[in-house]
Write a structure and sequence with these properties.
Length: about 190
């Protein structure tokens, strides 16, 4: 083997390693959005489905839906459902209300995440409207009523893994949504604290 061919082989190995490292880095950044899309499409991990239309089939069978409301540590809000549960007919569109109150002395931007348990039922829980689709800003001391409009897909009674489910739990956790660093710097500059 000549010295020139050895350098070419080493160069090819270095190039392959760099491509591998770049590819793995790109995949790590793409993993979270791809996983979120996968969960939304399949209902995996209790992710409810977002739909644009109401159900046109309503069964003569009810299912109990309970509500769970949580606030992440560090968020000075009170957050709760206005009722603990409802028992709609499967396919019936229902609206329930949640209430959030900012207990702090500053405006806070929050974002709710959600899931449905049992997890296999997430694909059949359809939300038409939800405060969790957008960020929520509460001023100091402000209380806000927030609707959730949903229905349970009638196909839940046909699927082998969900046909015996009688109770679902829709759970929310509100997190403080951090301002981008540039917005924080801008706000600090406008306060005269620069």
């Amino acid at each position: 083997m000549t010295q020139a061919s050895g350098k070419r082989n080493n160069g090819a190995i270095v190039l392959m390693c760099l491509v591998f490292v770049f590819g793995m880095t790109a995949m790590s950044f793409a993993a979270v959005p791809l996983y979120r899309i996968f969960c939304q499409v399949t209902g995996y991990n209790g992710t409810a489905q977002r739909v644009e239309q109401y159900s046109n089939v309503v069964l003569d069978k009810s299912i109990k839906v309970t509500f769970d409301a949580n606030v992440a540590p560090g968020l000075d809000w009170e957050f709760k459902p206005e009722q603990k549960s409802v028992s709609p007919r499967i396919g019936e569109t229902v609206q329930v209300m949640f209430t959030a109150r900012n207990k702090s002395s500053e405006p806070i931007l929050g974002q709710a995440i959600f899931n449905v348990t049992p997890l296999q039922a997430g694909a059949y829980f359809n939300k038409v409207e939800c405060f969790c689709f957008t960020e929520t800003v509460l001023q100091p001391g402000e209380t806000l009523e927030m609707p959730v409009v949903f229905f349970v897909d009638p196909a839940i009674v046909d699927a082998e893994e969900t046909k015996d489910i009688r109770v679902l739990t829709l759970s929310y956790t509100f997190f403080e949504h951090e301002k981008p660093v540039a917005a924080k710097a801008s706000a600090a500059g406008s306060d005269g604290s620069s």
